Amino acid sequence: TQLLEQSPQFLSIQEGENLTVYCNSSSVFSSLQWYRQEPGEGPVLLVTVVTGGEVKKLKRLTFQFGDARKDSSLHITAAQPGDTGLYLCAGEAGGFKTIFGAGTRLFVKA
Amino acid sequence: DVKVTQSSRYLVKRTGEKVFLECVQDMDHENMFWYRQDPGLGLRLIYFSYDVKMKEKGDIPEGYSVSREKKERFSLILESASTNQTSMYLCASRRGGEGLNEQFFGPGTRLTVL
After folding, report:
1. Do A42 and B58 touch (CB under 8 A)?
2. Taking CB atoms and an 8 Å limit, are A95 and B100 in contact across chains?
3. Residue B42 or residue A86, greater confidence
4. Distance between CA atoms of A90 and B40, rounded to whole angstroms?
5. H-helix or E-strand spanning residue B29
6. Are B106 and B91 in contact (CB under 8 A)?
7. Residue A40 CA to chain centroid, in angstroms?
8. Which of A76, B34, B66, B71 has its CA 20 to 30 A from that of B85?
9. Nearest chain A Cα to B42, which residue?
10. Minimal Cα distance from A95: which residue of B?
11. What is the pLDDT of residue B98?
12. Statement: residue B48 has pLDDT above 90
């Protein structure tokens, strides 16, 4: 069974701090996605990474896909209260299915 | 602006009731999904549909059924609601084809079964 484990489960930081969250698996994925879910809303896609070692930047967010395509990380520079939310990683599980990690809940205090 | 809508944001039902959750997408997507989201467990797939009238069981289909009579609409049915079905239910749609295409989610329905 393919699993995606995310860490930490919960993170509370001050505005302006940097942080990294992780998504790990023992399985190889052809691609991984990161979604952000704000309170009361459904998840929204941030990025898809498809190549081992790939780094993608989205303003203050940096996403990295591991060389072996088993793990990914999300780094946020100078976090802002607007970054508060649940960050989910997701991977293709074959067929039409996507599996999701349990998420990292981030709270950024002003 | 692409959109996935769900029929209710909040729903309270009694044990044993039949519950219908409706989802509509306006993107002409082939694939549609129903997930439930529980704290610490992430999103778990209940059922998905890869085309009209086609459905496949996900990881936790017990106690649920689905219907997809039209491309834009995917319904989740709880035949006889139980308290352990209290959860957040998320619908998503995605265009068909190979690869990990983006899923577009609705805002969710928070169901409480008393």
Report:
1. no
2. no
3. A86
4. 15
5. none
6. yes
7. 19
8. B71
9. A102
10. B98
11. 67
12. yes
